[in-house]
Amino acid sequence: MIFLRKFRIRTQLLLTFLVVVLPLLAGELVAVSSFRAGLRDAAEVELTNIVDHLFRLVQSKAEAGPEVACTGYDDKEGVFDCKTRSIRHVIRTFRVGATGYPYVMDSKGNLVIHPAQEGRNIFGSRDSKGFMFIQSIVEMAKKLGPDEVGTIRYPWHNPEDAANVPRMKILKFKYYEPWDWIIAAGSYEEEIFASAKDVEKYIWPLILFSLLLVAVVAYFMSRMFSRPLIAIVEAANRMSAGNFEKRVRGTTGTDEFSTLARTFNYMADQVHEKTEDLEQLVAERTVQLRDSQEKYRSLVEGTVDGIVTADTQGVITFVNRGMKHMLGMEVNEVIGTQIWNFYPEGKEQARTIMRMLRDQGNVANYEMELIGKDRIIPIRTSASRLFDGQGNEIGSFGIFSDITSEKALQEKLRKTQAQVIQSMKLRALGDLVSGVAHEINNPLMAAITMLHVARKKPCVDSCPNARKFELIENCHERITKIVTHLKDFSRQTDLEMVETDVNVPVEDSLLIAGQQLMNTHVSVEKELDLNLPTIKADPNHLEQVFLNIINNARDAMRDRERKVLGIRSHAEELDGAPAVAVSISDTGKGIPESQKEKLFEPFFTTKEVGEGTGLGLSICYGIIVEHGGRIDVESVEGEGTTFHVILPAIAP
Amino acid sequence: MAKHILITDDDELVLISLEELLGSEGYEITTATHGKEALDILTKQRFDLVFLDLIMPGGVTGYDVCRELRKTEEHKDVPVVMLTAKSTEADRKMGLEAGANHFLPKPTDPEKVVELVHSILDN
Fold first, then answer.
1. Residue A441 to residue B16, Cβ atoms within 8 A
2. Taking CA atoms, what residue in A is nearest to B53?
3. pLDDT band at B55 (very low <50, low <70, confident <90, very high)
4. Shortest Cα distance from B74 to chain A (angstroms)?
5. Residue in B closest to A435 by C-alpha
6. pLDDT digits 0-9 by tens, A193-230
């Protein structure tokens, strides 16, 4: 039945009808034809019986014994013997069908007994096709067996017939040799089939009518069945094309089609409703999604922070504008590359970060560096792993903040803090020192004065205490020197700032130190830039600073063969602003790295006891810091040291 | 008749030493250990020279004593030498503004002190 599926349902129904009707039709045809055959057989049997019956009659008469034969014919023209007379009567009264009759002829074609033409020779008779059928009958009859009856059919045109058409005749015959009689009985076939013809006359129109009826019924039925189905199919097609307005008609009945149509319409309503709901929902969600996307896009693209996503292999899949700017690269230079290309420590660093991600779930405020196009970028990053909707890990994302300026600020803050701490330390120390100096100065004044009074007493003969007095005086001098230093130290913040050419205090300090430098065979190489911008400074204090450094340089070269003091003033920069610098170099033994940091701490000294207080450089440092400047030290052990005093210039 | 000097200082050692120094030079010395005492003494008699320490206990500083002196008719011209361990430039300025004639830091070479006293009293 599958092959039926190739056809439309209407065709299927028609085919089904044909399959049912055709055998019926065939059966009908078979029945009609067998009815015809039956009729013919019955006719033939009748003819045969008549012939056979007459034959037996003749035979019995002939064998009845010696009976007087009647001669001559019963009627006017013929004379029959007695034997045949009764037979003739019997034969002539027989009728077969409407026009058929039996007759007897001899083997020469003479009609012995015939309803109308007794005595006539018909041997030469021809049928309507010209066949000499009597001759043939005679020949056939002579050959028949004792129980056989011969049969012949021939078309015959009876001249008495109104219809000028030959008709088929059937003739049965048997030969009774003793009398040389051929007993025959014939009839027109159409008379035999007359009843069959009558039936056929109704059968054929009936068949045609029933065929037509079947076709019409099949057509209408197929229409009836297929129409609602087609309507539903069309409605379904419309629905699938998105048209939900039309409904299937014919829902009022109680048959399955109506039920189907109702169910379909209900279903269509439901689908329509649901589809509309769905469409509305989709439209709403689309707007929401677009808004959300736009929000996140502007969030991601608007931030100055860099945002990067990478897949599980560490291949970068997205960078935002902030990241692009931070790296100084184009998006296509970044996407598709391995993320660790941007890590100074490469893959190992990526592993470290991934380990943190796995162990802690995220990385927060992790400080590291990235390799940008033109620079190493200090950054702070927060990173997380990325998952898809099913919870599968699909990579990671990181937010990178450029902390270059923060770092710079931190560094500056650290320095400023250090300076503040240093200056606070110095201030606290200054206060202490000032108090101590004040307290010492009174007894010192008294002691010096007492000694003076005591020494003024004239010695008699010798002065046994003269040496001791001298030593006491030395002590006083040392105490005075220390106290003076301490007072200077405490006084360092009392600055009188005026617009100053830095070369002036440099020259003044050289003037003061000049004699001593000459005495210790130090040669001075002076190189001053006379076009330097001015600075706001206390020249006396600066002179003290330079003098202090020059004295230190001189002391550092005490045991050196080559003694060169370099003093140079030049333009410089301080925190990006114009500044002036005075660089004082020596060819001394240099400062060990370990001592560099302590250099400016109060009371740090490498000199012998009594030679230095350890306050000199800390005082210098304090003074320069108060000026908003800086002292840098460069030293190579065994070669010498250079102090750079850097002071901010007055903005032109 | 010997010139009369008032020396004011809260430090007794300083007082004694200066008394020795200037007494040996033939001057008559009176001492006071704080500002109030100095002012009391000064209301009773005149001096040829006054030494003032700046910071003394009792709330009356050398500046205060000097300013008071300059307000009175008797003492408005008396030479005043300020002698102090607190000898910053600011202190010096303040001292001179308060009416002092000289400002000496502690310690000062005794010979210089004697020279100064001679130069004030013996011309």
1. no
2. A442
3. confident
4. 30
5. B86
6. 776 677 777 777 887 887 788 778 878 877 777 777 78
- The β-bridge partners of A110 are A121
The tokens for A49 are 């019986």
Q: Under an 8 A CB cutoff, do A452 and B16 touch?
A: no
Q: Which of B7, B14, B86, B106 is the mutation pick for testing A, counting most A CBs within 10 A?
A: B106
Residues of B in contact with A440 (CB under 8 A): 85
- Tens-digit pLDDT profile for residues A94-107: 877 777 888 888 88
CA distance linking residue B109 with residue A447, whole number of Å: 11
Residue found under tokens 């600073």 = A545
Which position has the higher pLDDT, A624 or A92?
A: A624
* Residue A420 contacts residue A427 (beta carbons within 8 Å): no
Q: Which residues of A touch B (CB under 8 A)?
A: 434, 437-450, 452-453, 456, 476, 480, 483, 487, 491, 494, 496
Q: Are A325 and A302 in contact (CB under 8 A)?
A: no
State which residue of chain B sits closest to A455, comparing Cα positions: B21
- pLDDT at position A336 is 92
Q: What is the C-alpha separation between A271 and A276, in angstroms, rounded? A: 8
Residues A159-187: b if buried by 16+ CB within 10 A, e if exposed: eeeeeeeebebbbbbbbbeebebbbbbbb
ipTM value of the model?
A: 0.91
Please tell me the pTM assigned to this model.
0.42
C-alpha distances (whole Å) from A124 to each of A134, A151, A185, A251, A438 are 7, 19, 19, 84, 194
DSSP H helices, A381-465, are: 404-456
Q: How much is the average pLDDT of A521-548?
A: 90
The pLDDT value recorded for residue B14 is 92
- The answer to whether B57 faces chain A, any CB pair under 8 Å, is no
Confidence band, pLDDT 50/70/90 cuts, at residue A163 = low
